Amino acid sequence: MSESSNSLAREPTRTTTVRSTDTTTPRTGYDADTVAETLLRAFYAQDEREACIRAGDAAGAADAANAARDLMGEAFVAEFPHVPEGQAHLAGVRFVEALFLQDEVENRDEFAAAAADGLDEALFLTDTDPATARCLTTPAGNWSSRTSKRSVSTRASTRRTPAHRPASGNSTASR
């Protein structure tokens, strides 16, 4: 390949044309700084929930979780003005709840200990009792929890692929 046809060797195209400097959305009128701050506050509240659970502070964890849901919903409404407001808000809530699930998986031993010490299990999206939690192993070997408290399953997470099927005596791999 000649150097002239190599896209990495060419100088990047530069432009001085700016399409728009208007950072407001039609629905909310938020400017970019306000939306960014709302998003950061939602992430902070998510982290605060985790810290409160670790500290055994049920009221603080519940307040932080509610704040994270509200703030992320608000951020999604502003970021996706073309989506109906209720759907955008719900998407934000579900997004931050997915982050809660990630926290619960990453800290499952500490969170289970907090629940065993009397922390209200209603604060968790997953089952905190390792004896009753149904666990799946992903193809990469990562641990994931399935809950009976909320339906968080998707077809992709419950579908068994050939890689998950046990080898049988009739398979060509065992011959």
Automatic annotation (TrEMBL):
Protein's UniProt name: Uncharacterized protein
Region annotation (Disordered) ranges: 1-30, 135-175
Annotated Low complexity bias: 14-28, 144-156
